[in-house]
Amino acid sequence: MYRLYGKASAQLTTLSLLLLLGVQGVALASTDDPGWPREITVPKASILIYQPQLESFEGNDMAARAAVSVTPVATGEPVFGVAWFDARVQTDLDNRMVEVLDVKVREVRFPEITEDQKAQFTALVEGEMPKWDLSTSLDRVLAAMATVTKTNDASKGLNFDPPVILYADIPAVLVSLDGEPIY
To answer: Is the peptide bond before 162 cis (omega within 30 degrees of 0)?
Structure first.
């Protein structure tokens, strides 16, 4: 085993730690960051929100989606879904925190439940989510934005146009050539 000293050792240790923690885009969190998931209890149910996944972050405007689970008091069985939301954020660089303000829920989906339950759970999440403290560390947001940027850059060159389909009413043979044809 090789031993590194000084700056090289510190850089390697930091890089190893970031690679270890960065698998899912999680960066070193501030001590004020309560972590995920977060729970809120209302008289009818308990709602759990998991770490939001950023979709865009420009200026002070953020768009994200988050997995949520609603556990009604009556049944005690969690029902899982997804909530998409837009928010205005305020960044505190001194404390390295991002405070999420003015949350507007765009859409909520709960698969495999009745329409009555879906309406009830959607109203519950839409009503309660804007009241939650969704503040998180700046490092988490920066790591998530790096993932979003990498994903967007990787998908820029993709072509989703369907291929040309050749149709013939007579029998045909497909001939595969390895290299340029020689006449």
So the answer is: no
